[in-house]
Amino acid sequence: MNIRILIADDQDLIRTGLRLFLQTQDGIEVVGEAADGVEAIEQARALQPDVVLLDIRMPRMDGVEAAARLTQLDPAPRVLVLTTFDLDEYVFGALRAGAAGFLLKDARREKLIEAIRVVHTGDALLSPSVTRRLVAEFAAGAGPVGPPPAVLDELTPREREVLALVARGLSNREIGERLVITDATVKSHFGQILFKLGLRDRVQAVVFAYEHGIVTAGSA
Questions:
Q1: Is residue 143 situated within a structural domain?
Q2: Which domain holds residue 165?
Q3: 220 is a domain residue
Q4: Domain named Response regulatory: which ranges (predicted)?
């Protein structure tokens, strides 16, 4: 079954370019386009796409608000944020609003296809540049939002270790190499982390870890 895509961007040339490229890819179908956040919500309700490629800066409703509303739909599409700048001030807000991933508009075409497939499977795409941005947010003074919640006590020492490494931007393979365990074991630990903390995906896990001081800016 094809992955159904909705493209939301206020620039017609970008929408056209994305559509023409994606239409050539096996297993991907572009079902609609939107020129702003309001239209993105309307089109998502009507077309029920699997993944929304969402520009972060749009008129009438920006990508942060649109991401929050899109992820509340039933069924809810996965939201992949597209932006021109890796330090866009809206990126952090969009991730907290429920976006499943983040990609620069100048990323390689192969990276775009990979990102679409990753978020469609229910995983999240969090690039090293975004992880560095999260670190910068807290280094700049945001800091933990409060004391660690009691639910953290339910994590085993190994699960806390895995969560800390996820928050630093390591992939499952890299975590496995660091801890000398298999990829499957890492996935199992991470699944338990999401379940115990009531989180949806890798993005939420990284934000949670920084917000609650599990890792701190500058930690190795």
A1: yes
A2: 133-211
A3: no
A4: 4-120
10 and 117 housed in the same domain = yes
Taking the model in full, what pTM does it have?
0.71
The beta strands (E) that lie in 84-118 are given as: 101-104
Residue 16: both structure tokens together: 């056209």
Task: Give pLDDT tens digits for 26-73.
Answer: 999 999 999 999 999 999 999 999 999 999 888 888 888 999 999 999
Q: What are phi and psi of 21, to 5 degrees?
A: -70, -50
Classify residue 217: in a domain, yes or no.
Answer: no
pLDDT of residue 220 exceeding 50: no
Note whether residue 95 is domain-resident: yes
Rounded mean pLDDT of the chain?
A: 84
